[in-house]
Design a protein that fits this description.
By secondary structure, the protein is an alpha+beta fold.
Length: 153
């Protein structure tokens, strides 16, 4: 199965969180798991807030990138026949609730649930789970990337 982010065109694959062309980034990869989306990520030692716990900014970044990837895949599944590149989505609104400290040293699971799909807007929720505990939840509105953000050849 191919990751959503690996379907992005080369010129739109530089995101710090999920861009395959950004060697310094997280390289997050998102996939379908039935009607939900999933991504896995293991924080590195420098992603520390205080010893033993993950930095909240990393959590926000992971939720953001998994959310926009999930929005792209949901819109592609609903409105495209597969012959076109999937549309890129960007964050219009993101609200994160931090529910429990996120421990270091374990793989984190991101789960996305799509609530609304329109050609230019997707509304979804993302949960970040560590060892079976939901540590954070994000509510996102993602919109189709405006042409002004695309690089012209």
């Amino acid at each position: 199965m191919q990751a959503f982010q690996d379907l992005y065109p080369e010129d739109l694959s530089h995101c710090y969180g999920c861009g395959r062309n950004n060697p310094h980034g997280h390289q997050l990869k998102s996939y379908w798991d039935d009607d939900e989306t999933i991504a896995l990520f293991t924080p590195k030692s420098f992603h520390t807030a205080i010893p033993g716990f993950v930095y909240g900014g990393l959590i926000a970044s992971l939720i953001d990138c998994h959310g926009t990837g999930s929005a792209s895949a949901a819109a592609a599944r609903a409105f495209y026949d597969g012959s076109q590149e999937p549309p890129r989505f960007v964050t219009a609104a993101l609200n994160i609730d931090y529910l429990a400290p996120t421990p270091m040293g374990i793989e984190l699971e991101l789960r996305g649930v799509i609530h609304e799909i329109k050609p230019k807007k997707v509304v979804l929720d993302i949960s970040l789970i560590a060892a079976g505990v939901t540590c954070a939840k994000g509510h996102m509105v993602a919109v189709k990337m405006p042409a002004s953000m695309m690089i012209e050849a």
